[in-house]
Amino acid sequence: MAGCASSPESASWRAFSEKFPQADYTPLDDLLARDDIDAFVVTAAWRAMPGMLPRLLAHPKPMLLEKPIEFDAKRLAAAIDGAGAAIGNKVVGMNRRFYDPVIKLKQRLQRGGLIRAEIVVSENLENLVKRWGAEILPHVLAYSSCHILDVAQFLLGTLRPAFLHAAAAPGFEPFVNLNGALMSDEHNALVSLAINAFEPSAVGITCAFNDRTVWRLNPMEVLTVYEDYDKIEPTEEYPVRRYQPRPIRKEVVNLDFRPGFLQQMEAFLAGRRESAATPQSFLTLLEWTDAARRMGIAVAGL
Predict the structure, then answer these.
(1) In a 10 Å sphere around its CB, with 0-12 CB exposed, 13-18 middle and 19+ buried, how is residue 272 labelled?
(2) pTM of this prediction?
(3) SS3 assignment, position 112
């Protein structure tokens, strides 16, 4: 086992070497040249990854690359083209795809009957700026929103912007709130999209089917299936009748370890890519989110 970081004195390397004292610190160029390493896990910082990416994608060994791998779709497309056949053993770290609740919803979607879907993302921009500075604001969709948006793409296929409207997020430009509709051509269904700053809404993904059920990932670690309503009569505390969706099934992700991490690593080491995110799928994500943002800004006249 070997590895590298920005320096052998970095906090990340110290934490890694404490857990794995047998690991050799090796400069990146020397590390990539070693024949005794079978595969690489690359968790470079978001600022560093784009500059390293062309060399990583073209390397012959399998790699699991921490997202986001790029912020610019054209640069990523060029890096993928330049990698040639080596691109086939590269995956992107999107562990939510491996959650059991996500897999269950994927299986339900494969049976057909989707009427509509909904994606809701709420971004705490203050926390992102506090951690990374204002330079993160142009990249929020690819850095943070991608956690839910990638799962939506995994479930629903490539999402095509149909109508988007942008609204300013004062004090946090160039981030814009995005609301509107996407099209899932794979399922011939409309998908509503809401990506807003500081919105106190239930984030996640909802799918409504023609068998009168609604399947909801909220939070992403929990899948709840609803059918029909429960009628709740007025009370002194709540003096109006209420109709609440009736939960008939609940699936919770295995919390014994970081959810999805072990499943993703097992799939990577076994060379299984059927559920994995790839550089190509991340490129698709960048392309449609960029198109949605441009449409929203143009429609709103911002």
Answers:
(1) exposed
(2) 0.94
(3) coil
